[in-house]
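Morning run. Coffee first, then this:
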Amino acid sequence: MERFKLIIQYDGTEFSGFQIQPEKRTVQGELEKVLSFLVGEQVRLYASGRTDTGVSAFAQVCHFDTDKVVDAKKLEVSLNGLLPADIAVPSVEKVGMDFDSRFTAKKKTYQFRFYVSRYELPLLEKQAVRINHYADITLMNEACKFLIGTYDFSSFVAAKSGKTDFVRTIYDAKIVEIGDGIFAFEITGNGFLYNMVRIIFGTLLKVAYGKMKPEEMKSVIEAMDRKKAGKTMPAKGLVLKNVVYDDQN
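And here it is:
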């Protein structure tokens, strides 16, 4: 038995999320279909975490096991030749059986991308959410400081989540400029709740527009009440940037 680690990049626009769902197009479904064909046996793919409908990934991490003899570099080339245009696999490598894409992950970084414009800009619309009004980045970064630490983040979880443990650790949170006129709310944590990043960004917009003071972010967290936070922002702005494991900084 051998284990292989894959770095996956995908545009989530046309997918019903990462995880396989009956009669729906998913990232896992497309990958397992092609992998199984190339390896010559049914392959089960495991990911660092699921992404929801419409969410993209720059560097999702997955692994699979096989009894077959597989050349990692040849598999990488073949995968990229057969996968649809909205999925790519920049890296395939053989790893030890102690590596687990989900359970050995230490940190994940997400970006929520946005731009400020009165009008939709076609070259940005697919990768970022348009904000109608000027957003005060300085105030948003002040509010981000109150997110760092270990807290119950139930104020920022969708009602249908179904989870009972809402405690997560956030290591870093900030607004960064990632391109000409394109910004991102970038947040790193040990894990994230359903819609958590999108709701936090919706709350940061309240700060940006002067509807909430930066320090009020603390009271929103402490309230553990979804009604105290901002709206859930569209999925298309959300990108899984990277996943960090034990052997990385």
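DSSP finds six helices and ten strands in the chain. Good start to the day.
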